[in-house]
Design brief:
291 residues; three-stranded parallel sheet
Length: 291
């Protein structure tokens, strides 16, 4: 199969390995600065756009300019469990959309990840209840309407150990919320780990795909049954650099519509080499697909 090629300015990297261990993050300014400096040195031109708490989009954009970087596709996170009042989430969504608009974003992923009821039992849709899924979809739809109204297109991002984890939950959400309000922003790794076929899912919803997380899995990801999210995703168990695992990226990219104009974000949560060497390997792999 001949590989599809896309403009390089549609590619970002999210160097999670610098600040994330399991489900815990230590995203200090020093750590982020080191990660972004290494990403620029590896040849990336864009990074996932996350304005630091207490900072402004203008300050963040100026800092990226100093590093020779541009902001790329980001993600809005919500608990979707009513532990946070929906009204508070809607207001936070408005502020977030305003920040993303200043950074030039046209779209954003939206997800609820690392749900306490599900992190002990990843990929299984633990604690599923029809009424809970209905509430999650209702709240997700309300947040998506706010983001859409503010000019930023929300993209559903299914995630292992999140409220939208399984194929049924993904399909149900996309069925219940209109495409005019909610697009699709899949992660190849999380779809596959949760038992879905990334190529089939992307092809089925090609008209709604507005962005893609590029993530690969090791074959051993499917060997272990027990263990929580953190233990399942330790070094050498699930994640690997793109092109070294089980995902057929030629087929994934071929499944995107011919006029696809969304963004791509490479993520390697737990690299098989040092974080900086992983960034170099990711950028080298990307040369096959990004001019």
């Amino acid at each position: 199969m001949t590989a599809r090629r896309f403009p390089s300015d549609r590619l970002s990297v999210n160097p999670l390995a610098y600040w994330m261990t399991g489900t815990a993050t230590q995203r200090t300014p020093e750590v982020v600065a080191r990660a972004f400096t290494d990403a620029a040195a590896a040849g990336f031109g864009r990074v996932k756009a996350d304005v630091p708490d207490g900072g402004s989009p203008a300050e963040y954009r100026a800092w990226l300019d100093e590093l020779g970087l541009r902001p790329g596709l980001s993600m809005f996170l919500s608990t979707l469990d009513r532990a946070t009042k929906l009204a508070d989430d809607l207001e936070r969504a408005r502020r977030y959309a305003g920040e993303q608009s200043v950074l030039g974003a046209r779209a954003t992923m939206i997800s609820a990840i690392f749900v306490p009821e599900r992190t002990p039992y990843p990929t299984l849709g633990a604690g599923y209840r029809a009424e809970r899924l209905a509430q999650v979809i209702d709240d997700l739809g309300a947040i998506a309407e706010v983001l859409t109204a503010e000019g930023v297109r929300p993209l559903l991002h299914p995630h292992v150990s999140g409220w939208i984890e399984t194929e049924y939950e993904t399909e149900r959400t996309l069925e219940d919320i209109p495409a005019s309000i909610l697009g699709f922003g899949p992660d190849t790794g999380h779809l596959a780990w949760a038992g879905m076929d990334p190529v089939a899912m992307i092809a089925r919803h090609a008209d709604r795909v507005g962005g893609l997380h590029v993530k690969d899995l090791q074959p051993s990801a499917f060997d272990k049954i027990g263990g929580d999210y953190s233990s399942r995703t330790g070094a050498g168990s699930v994640w690997t650099e793109p092109g070294t695992g089980v995902i057929d990226f030629d087929a994934v990219f071929a499944a995107l519509p011919a006029d696809f104009d969304g963004e791509f974000v490479i993520e390697v949560d737990v690299p098989t080499v040092s974080p900086v060497d992983s960034l170099v390997a990711q950028r080298r792999w990307a040369e096959r697909y990004f001019a």
